[in-house]
Amino acid sequence: MFSFLTKNRNDIIYLSLLLFCIGVGPRYRALKTVQAKKWAGSILGLLLIIIVSGYSALHPILSAFMGIIAIKAATVRYCHVVTFFLMFGYLFFFRLADKFGFPLSSGQTNLIEMIIVLRVVGVAFEINGSWLAVAKAKKDENKEKKEEKVKDDDFLEIINPDFQDLFHYSFNYIGLLTGPYYRYRTFDDYFRLPYSKYVDCFGFTINTMRMVPLYVSLYLALSNIWPLEYILTEDHNNRNFVYRMLYPWALFSAFRQRIYSGMTLAESVCTSAGFGAYPVQGKNRTGHGPTVGYLKLKQMSDEEAENCQYDFNTVESMDVWGCETVVTLRDSMKVWNKAVQYWVAMVVYKRFPIKPLKIHAALFVSVIWHGYHAGYFFCIYFCPFYVMAEDIYYKLYYKDATGQKKKILGFIMWFLRSHSESYQAAAFLLLTFDRIWIYYSSVYHYWYGVWLAFLILGIVLNKLHRSKRPRKINDEIETKQEVVSN
């Protein structure tokens, strides 16, 4: 028992702090004034950083202040670019601190630094994006009136927080330990709009947390039966090929349970404080918040708010059921860590100026945000190669299939998707190139060969399908002509 506690000391402390934050939520929500809430949230956030990081707390605190100063010092036109390179530059320094004579920080401090980067860079892009969007809207006022939009634009109002608001947004305890990421607009709405007073925070929190004991139990069981380090041993290499091939399934299953536990508890921190609650009619999306009728929602009276139905979709990070059941890797990426996916899409993919390189820019930023180890590149940057082949088979065989045929094809695609993710996750967990090479060599790097064969075969089958299509269309036309003539 003692050895278990010693081995998992940091995880136990982190778990305890998340549970503490959940317990604090109702008291935090009950604070009367906006200023009291903001300062209490920021002070608690700073205390959490110090408890988790010790002397290394200097890194997230210093980097956040540097980013805030950059936002306020630079012009609105360039503040997002300056802040992006400053924060990611500091992130590199933070992770390579030992090269400069400083001690390396713990993995938990690394998680906090990652969240700080998302928040500070994200708000800089919000400021710049809101000014661009509002300026464009003013120009469009002089043109012919367009039809009313079903969906809101990304930015409807100017976002221009002062230094103090940026400080509170950066250090508020909600989401600081392990996410989720949320926009500054969501943070500001929490203090200005009445939703947190009327949403059933206790009910949502209990409903969100109910599966956590199962996730934790599965993680402990799987990680003890199939430990990561065993994959590098000679004993593992002497096992039969099928065992070596399927071992990453156990590793990735344990990893998923750990992520599910952390993300679910992080969402519960939000729900217990009423943070991220919006009326369901806003059709709320992870990271973004309301996507329909946001300005009308802001004008809602207390009486209307009291009778509303709410959700916490804005702060939902993981669709656990989706992660386990979706058929394709493309869909799997959409339901995994959705808040960070939203940040990458809004900050990188949509704003990158060179269209053909958008996806590469998004993947590259995702990789360097996770870290500089080879495992992150092997895991994240190889996804598009599998998706290229997957898309071909999806369109050719699965998309229009029905009944039993669709179920069988769906299971095959699910198995291949899950196997691909497990193979990539092995690299993500092993991290360094030499460790990855040991495992991939033990299975002869077979999955990359399978990917390539799938892709080549898919291209050939797709060309054959296209070549048959015009002939089929001509046959149908001739048949119709014969029917008409008769």
UniProtKB/TrEMBL annotation:
It is found in: Membrane. The chain crosses the membrane at residues 12-31, 43-71, 78-96, 116-135, 446-464. It is a multi-pass membrane protein. One of its GO terms (cellular component) is membrane. Keywords: Acyltransferase, Membrane, Transferase, Transmembrane, Transmembrane helix. Pfam families: MBOAT. GO terms for biological process: lipid modification; phosphatidylinositol biosynthetic process. Pathway: Phospholipid metabolism; Lipid metabolism; phospholipid metabolism. GO terms for molecular function: lysophospholipid acyltransferase activity. PANTHER family: LYSOPHOSPHOLIPID ACYLTRANSFERASE 7, PORCUPINE. Belongs to the membrane-bound acyltransferase family. This is Lysophospholipid acyltransferase 7. It comes from Spodoptera litura (Asian cotton leafworm). The lineage of its organism: Eukaryota, Metazoa, Ecdysozoa, Arthropoda, Hexapoda. The gene is LOC111359795.
